[in-house]
Amino acid sequence: MQEMRRRNDRREAPFGSRKQATTSNLRRPLEPRAASRENAIGKLPEDNRAALARNGKLTLPVLAVGGEASTTGSLMSEMMREVAETVTELRVPRAAHWIAEENPDAFLDGLKAFLETP
């Protein structure tokens, strides 16, 4: 408790100030987006393929949700079938990317039906 009081008295953040973190980020040179993305993700596709070969597909039921108006909505179940044995597709009408916000009733109805399936 005394340590917190001292910290508050000095007005110091426990992990450094947000201002310091922000200004130090601004001083770094900008990197091309692809390079920084690769640094953040690493060899994710290769790692995933190796894990799939080592462990096999998921055996629990998977709900693949996609918005009917989304350009990628139809791909959700296809992508999930690559890594899971039992996939149920839910295409939510009148929804694109923000599915739960754009059509919450249809999303919740589909989710409830999936969860109630034996």
Report the sheet with the most strands, covering strand number, pairing sense and barrel closure: 2 strands, parallel
What is the helix fraction of residues, given as a range? 40-55%
| Shape descriptor | flat
Order of helices and strands: HHHHEHEHH
Q: How many structural domains are formed by the residues? A: 1
Give me the secondary-structure category: mainly alpha
Key traits:
single chain; 2 strands; two-stranded parallel sheet; about 120 residues; mainly alpha
In short:
The protein has 118 residues and is mostly helical.
Explain what this protein looks like in three dimensions.
- This protein has about 120 residues and is mainly alpha-helical.
- It has one domain (about 30-115).
- Helix content is about 55%, strand content about 10%.
- It is built from 7 helices and 2 strands.
- A two-stranded parallel ribbon has the order 1-2.
- The chain is flat.
Q: Which secondary structure elements does this structure contain, and how are they paired or packed?
A:
Elements: H1 2-10, H2 18-27, H3 33-41, H4 44-55, E1 62-67, H5 75-81, E2 87-92, H6 99-102, H7 104-116
